[in-house]
What we know:
This protein is α+β, with helices and mostly antiparallel strands. The protein has a single domain (3-181), classed as NADH Oxidase, CATH 3.40.109.10. Helix content is 45%, strand content 17%. It is built from seven helices and five strands; from the N terminus they run αβαβααβααβαβ. It has helices spanning 3-10, 25-38, 55-69, 78-89, 101-110, 117-139, 154-161; strands at 17-18, 48-54, 93-100, 143-147, 167-178. Strands 1, 2, 3, 4 and 5 form a five-stranded antiparallel β-sheet that branches. 26% of the residues are buried.
Amino acid sequence: MTEFTQALKKRRSIYSLGNKLPQSQEEIKALVKEVVRESPTAFNSQTQRVVFLFGDAHKKLWSITEEALKPLTPAEAFPNTQAKLQSFAAGTGTLLFFEDMDIVKNLQEQFALYADNFPVWSEQASGLTQANVWTALAQENIGANLQHYNPVIDEAVANEWSIPSSWKLRAQLVFGSIEAEAGEKEYMEDSARFLEFN
């Protein structure tokens, strides 16, 4: 097994997070910035945008999310939702992943032949970046899980942190110290997933 595949195996959804990381905020930010810079985008468009939330800002995000979900969640199910959100708030921080849609629109105008593809390529770039950052954090023994409360929280997040209007929220990566390991991962049969021709 290569170091790369070992890194991929180490990247798991860690839901039991704490706030006891040995890495400083500056070290985490430096790592994430490097990974984002090296993650691929169509036409080298560099559409990815990341907001770092630590401390009170991190906790505020999950409070905002709770407020947004309360009227949308059946009363009997809300305690479970609250517990889940509190488990996120217990972590060290959250990375908000955005895509800059002004760049996407400019590329659509500049390369009309591919106009329909640029939003798709933007989504692919975002997914690649999220996975790369998540894997890089795992290599540093930082637990994380990826959430998608957009578009429910988009407006409140934009207002709270003065997010540029062209930035579209795509995901929230919660991270922190690993308080409990992930369970065993199950894999589907190769025969259902791969085809080969010679």
